[in-house]
């Protein structure tokens, strides 16, 4: 696990087989830098959701499921496996306006 | 006072730079084949380019950086690179057509060999873009392109059927065999494409950065875009009328720019001929420069290379190499002897196919309040923007099938 | 050109979305010179461990892997394999454009432009700019 760009659009599946959509965002806590501050930025969650045509066009914000990094069990090239069931993961209505 | 001059010059530049060889050819042919029945498409296209010109100008003014970055940010690496390659190829084809058309015009005047004139044109463009500042390029070719106004005078003098023209503003399908209807549809798609060519909005947006606009210039941008492009549309409509009045009866195809020049001569004599040739030269030359620079802007912005005429050439070397290489390759294309008007035809058709690709990231960003702040799309820009996006998507899907079904527009 | 962030009103969010706000954004150095685009992001950590962003990656070596395999193979031949690592500690302001603390030359960015610029400088008129 050396880089982040490849994760985008990878499907996410829960242990019980349910799908959480595809990764469309990676969230890091802490406000955006306005001065040099830290040498590393932590990553706390992946945002996953349905990536239909309207979402990709920017017409609709995807309904996001928040997957904490700690819940990730395995990373494969074509799939990410996470702990538990789909419903264990919180849904964000509009992912821009809500903090995870 | 300075602002008023700025607006005035901006409008004239937008009008003078509106027409290029593709538009000229298709407008005149549409007029000769279908009278004024396609005038509504011109109106539709002009409003469309106003909408996207305003949006891309606003994005550039607010972000302080150019629009092709937007493509990469929103479409991602894969789709973004595909868009870049497609847009560059289309720009290259258009540039080739303009250079070819200019050589044809010079050949008309001088009788010198075509290929020698192509090389002369290439040297001319390399020197102009290298030495002239952006503002000078914009103004010289934009304002002198206004010589094309001679065609408005010519159209007026030919006393067109005003009633028919007015009727043409409403969409109608021509009666007749399916062949004719398919050709009509093909021309409708081609006309929309020729008015809404992607390089126009991308070049315009890069120009906003070159001219150092800020969000305060947004109202200025709106005025220039609306009035300038409306006047440009008037010019396009005049070409359609001239095509109808001059080519129709003569059963001639506006294959050569010379034919267009002769139509002016038929009404205004020698003066008309010279004004038409002069106008066409500056309009086509402007388009050649814009497409070459637009390719360079797009490539440099996509990969994060320093770009712009506001930077000295030694500080933006890859940008300079990009436009120089595009000019050389474009000349090479027409050097092969392929008919520039044929090249135009293909560039127009492929332009419309990629139009949705180039406009969707623009729509996505302009709606995003995190990026645009208070300058995010209002209801008009949003509604019109999306309506046009759907329209051009339909045109994009229909373009290639229509090209095939009409045997390349031969009918 | 300076990093410009339009005011959105209200409080600033307490998180950063890496794909939307960092990846594919332009980089400006200490002198506000454009010196590249964020082509990928380096992280340390793994599944089951804390994950942290450590650096920005710039160059064809960084973005080639984001293309489908067929094209990714062509990139080294056309563009090279250069991949410059910009430590996250260099990030000064995270806005529409990402401002860095040091100058491009120090970070190893925009070297191709510097090299080519020396050749172009030999031509007359290469110094002229709009400024």
Molecular structure report:
The complex is a heterotrimer of chains A (about 100), B (about 400) and C (about 130). Chain A is mainly beta. Helices cover about 5% and strands about 40% of the residues of chain A. Chain A has one helix at about 55, and strands at about 10-15, 20-30, 40-45, 45-50, 65-70, 70-75, 80, 90. In chain A, strand 6 (about 70-75) and strand 7 (about 80) form a beta hairpin. With about 400 residues, chain B is mainly α. Chain B has one domain (about 1-405): Up-down Bundle (Amino acid/polyamine transporter I). Chain B has helices spanning about 1-15, 20-35, 40-65, 70-110, 115-130, 135-145, 150-155, 160-170, 180-195, 200-210, 220-250, 255-305, 315-335, 340-365, 370, 380-405. In chain B, helix 4 (about 70-110) packs antiparallel against helix 12 (about 255-305), helix 6 (about 135-145) packs antiparallel against helix 12 and helix 14 (about 340-365) runs antiparallel to helix 16. The model of chain B has no long low-confidence stretch (mean pLDDT about 90). Chain C has about 130 residues and is of the alpha+beta class. Chain C has helices spanning about 20, 60-65, 70, 75-80, 105, 110-120; strands at about 15, 25-30, 35, 40-45, 50-60, 85, 90-95, 100. The radius of gyration of chain C is 17 Å and the shape is globular. Residues about 1-10 of chain C have low confidence and may be disordered. At the B-C interface, helix 4, helix 13 and helix 15 of B face strand 3 and helix 6 of C. Strand 2 (about 20-30) of chain A pairs antiparallel with strand 1 of chain C.
């Amino acid at each position: 696990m050396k880089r982040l760009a490849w994760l985008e659009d990878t499907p996410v599946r829960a242990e019980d087989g349910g799908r959480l959509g595809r990764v469309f965002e990676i969230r890091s806590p802490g406000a955006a830098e306005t001065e040099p501050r830290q040498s590393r930025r932590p990553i706390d969650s992946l945002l996953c959701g349905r990536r239909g045509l309207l979402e990709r066009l920017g017409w609709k914000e995807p309904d996001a499921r928040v997957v904490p990094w700690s819940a990730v069990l395995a990373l494969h090239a074509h799939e990410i496996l996470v702990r538990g069931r789909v419903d264990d993961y919180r849904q964000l209505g509009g992912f821009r306006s809500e903090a995870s | 006072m300075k602002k008023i001059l700025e607006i005035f010059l901006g409008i004239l530049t937008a009008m003078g730079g509106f027409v290029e060889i593709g538009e000229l050819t298709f407008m005149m042919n549409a007029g000769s084949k279908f009278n004024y029945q396609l005038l509504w498409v011109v109106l539709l296209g002009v409003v469309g380019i106003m909408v996207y010109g305003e949006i891309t100008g606003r994005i550039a003014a607010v972000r302080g950086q150019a629009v092709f970055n937007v493509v990469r940010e929103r479409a991602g690496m894969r789709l973004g690179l595909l868009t870049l390659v497609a847009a560059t190829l289309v720009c290259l084809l258009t540039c080739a057509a303009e250079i070819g058309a200019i050589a044809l015009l010079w050949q008309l005047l001088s009788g010198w060999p075509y290929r020698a004139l192509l090389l002369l044109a290439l040297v001319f463009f390399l020197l102009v873009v290298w030495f002239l500042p952006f503002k000078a390029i914009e103004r010289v070719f934009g304002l002198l392109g206004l010589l094309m106004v001679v065609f408005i005078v010519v159209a007026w003098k030919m006393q067109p059927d005003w009633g028919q023209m007015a009727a043409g503003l409403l969409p109608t399908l021509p009666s007749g065999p399916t062949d004719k209807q398919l050709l009509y549809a093909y021309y409708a798609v081609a006309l929309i494409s020729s008015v809404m060519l992607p390089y126009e909005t991308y070049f315009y947006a890069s120009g906003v950065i070159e001219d150092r606009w800020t969000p305060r210039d947004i109202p200025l941008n709106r005025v220039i875009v609306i009035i300038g492009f409306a006047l440009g549309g008037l010019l396009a409509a005049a070409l359609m009328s001239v095509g109808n009045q001059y080519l129709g009866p003569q059963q001639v195809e506006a294959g050569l720019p010379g034919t267009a020049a002769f139509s002016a001569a038929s009404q205004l004599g020698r003066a008309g001929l010279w004004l038409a040739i002069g106008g066409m030269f500056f309009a086509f030359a402007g388009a050649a420069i814009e497409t070459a620079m637009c390719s360079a802007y797009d490539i440099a912005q996509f990969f994060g290379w320093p770009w712009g005429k506001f930077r000295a050439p030694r500080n933006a070397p890859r940008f300079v190499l990009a436009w120089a290489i595009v000019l050389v390759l474009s000349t090479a294309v027409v050097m092969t002897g392929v008919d520039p008007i044929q090249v135009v035809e293909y560039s127009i058709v492929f332009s419309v196919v990629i139009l949705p690709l180039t406009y969707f990231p623009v729509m996505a960003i302009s709606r995003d309040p995190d990026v645009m702040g208070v300058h995010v799309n209002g209801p008009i820009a949003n509604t019109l923007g999306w309506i046009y996006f759907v329209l051009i998507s339909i045109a994009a899907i229909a373009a290639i099938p229509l090209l095939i079904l009409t045997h390349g527009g031969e009918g | 050109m300076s990093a410009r962030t339009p005011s959105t009103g209200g409080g600033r969010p307490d998180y950063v979305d890496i794909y939307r706000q960092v990846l594919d954004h332009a980089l400006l150095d200490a002198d506000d010179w454009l010196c590249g685009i964020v082509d990928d992001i380096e992280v340390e950590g793994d599944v089951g461990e804390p994950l942290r962003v450590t650096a920005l990656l710039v160059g064809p070596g960084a973005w080639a892997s984001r293309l489908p395999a067929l094209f990714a193979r062509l990139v080294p031949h056309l563009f090279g394999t250069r991949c410059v690592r910009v430590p996250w500690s260099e990030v000064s302001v995270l806005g529409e454009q990402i401002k860095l603390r040091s100058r491009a030359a120090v970070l190893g960015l925009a070297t191709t432009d510097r090299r080519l610029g020396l050749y172009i400088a030999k031509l007359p008129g290469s110094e002229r700019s709009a400024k």
